Amino acid sequence: MNKTTTPFASTWVHEALFIEALSLHFEKPVTWASKRLAPVYLDNRKFFGFPESLTKLVSGLDDLYTEHINKNDVIDGIFGTSTAGIPWGALLAYRNITDFYMSLNGKVYKINDLDQYSDNLPDTTDVSDGTTILVNGAAGIPIGIIKAYEDDLPFAYEREAQKRHGLKNLIEGNVTEDTPFILMLTTIQDQNGNVIIQPNKDIKNKKNVVAVYEYIVEVTEVTELNGNILITEDLVSTGKSSFEDALTLNKLGAHVMGVLACYSYLFPETIAAFQEHNIPLHLMANWHDIRPVALEQEVITEEQALELDTWYHCPEEWSEKRKVV
Known about the structure:
The structure is a single chain. By secondary structure, the chain is α/β, with parallel strands linked by helices. The chain has ten helices and 16 strands. It is globular, with a radius of gyration of 20 Å. Helix 3 crosses helix 5 and helix 9 packs across helix 10. The longest helix has 19 residues. Strands 5, 6, 7, 8, 9, 10, 11, 12, 13, 14, 15 and 16 form a twelve-stranded mixed β-sheet that branches. It has a two-stranded antiparallel ribbon with strand order 1-4. A two-stranded antiparallel ribbon has the order 2-3. Helices cover 34% and strands 27% of the residues. It has a domain of 168 residues.
């Protein structure tokens, strides 16, 4: 697996540092989901709150998709891992007019006519600056992110429960206590009108809601899937979630063409795991793209760069030493 990524990689690092999606924590390391301590944390969901930066990132992903993946292999559909891979997969499917799939309540569904919803939602031309489209739960993410993308508005989604690791977010995006929200309430139903998921109207910051849009998304449960499917991820660490989704899709009959992700640290064990599973990993950027840009922008010193090198090459040992301290 090649450590180089795309021509857009340095642009992504610049944007991630600018909006603080990529943050460094030398004094107080963050705890990853794996329980490791780390001096670096990446939250690509911060891009949701900066429409201009999001547009750049999506364009970079789209170029990677069209020039290096779909150019050589015909992709019949895109599957977004839950929940972090859903926004990127939905936007790629929307831009490239291809089928989009996701898991809901343990089953795989295809969103019917993904491209029709944005035009059928109310106009947001007159909303005040900073107004953010908010959805509650994974079900509302695909249409919510597309609406925000088309209308050049910030986007956020509220989790069912607060994260226990990283920055411990409940709302993913770039919001404050005073952020005004347009709440999009999503009902998921099948083609026969049977309701699969009801919208959750209980959100944390109800006082900030300036408008409510209610809409229905029609889906089809997938029991058989013959075709080439691309999995989208936000950040690939161990690859575990990607491999689990690949197994699910294989059982349905699909051929997984690879995983497309915004970023990966590309630890040696990650590379080995993808090689073992024989799944191509396509990245817009990886760890090796960050160090030179961070030094160039003087975000880190030479001494801190060496500290990052030490952590990257021996993350477990670095973490254990910090736990003792």
